[in-house]
Amino acid sequence: MNENIFKAYDIRGIYPTEIDEEVVEKIGNSLPERIGKNRIIVGFDARNGSKSLSESMVSGLKKVGVREVIEIGLSTTPMLYFLVGKLDAEGGVMITASHNPPEFNGCKVVEKNAIPVSGTEILSLIKKTGE
């Protein structure tokens, strides 16, 4: 896994060479350690690979026992953040590379009340959980 994809505010890299479904599933496996296992919302943007990466994220979350994963499908980042608060979720994951060039993809992770979780913190969780 390329550790350079883990940034201060998100996780992003060139899809599928730097970030792919396997990496995203590992991220999903590690997130409940930080944001909980009750309710996590997952959405994705229209980029190449976003839907597939979202499916891998959902799979990773479910494999480690997240009780309720709410898949909102194609969405915007602000909508996901809004729903994290509105639906009283423990966190959310938006599959996106935001303003980066089209060959990039990645994810933004937030905890309760849509507070960002850094990519570097997620990398530490992955190392801790042995994923």
TrEMBL record:
It comes from the Bacteria. Keywords: Isomerase, Magnesium, Metal-binding, Phosphoprotein. One of its GO terms (biological process) is carbohydrate metabolic process. The keyword Isomerase applies. Residues 4-121 form the Alpha-D-phosphohexomutase alpha/beta/alpha domain. Its cofactor is Mg(2+). Pfam families: PGM_PMM_I. One of its GO terms (molecular function) is intramolecular phosphotransferase activity. Belongs to the phosphohexose mutase family. PANTHER family: PHOSPHOMANNOMUTASE. This is Alpha-D-phosphohexomutase alpha/beta/alpha domain-containing protein. It comes from Candidatus Harrisonbacteria bacterium CG10_big_fil_rev_8_21_14_0_10_40_38.
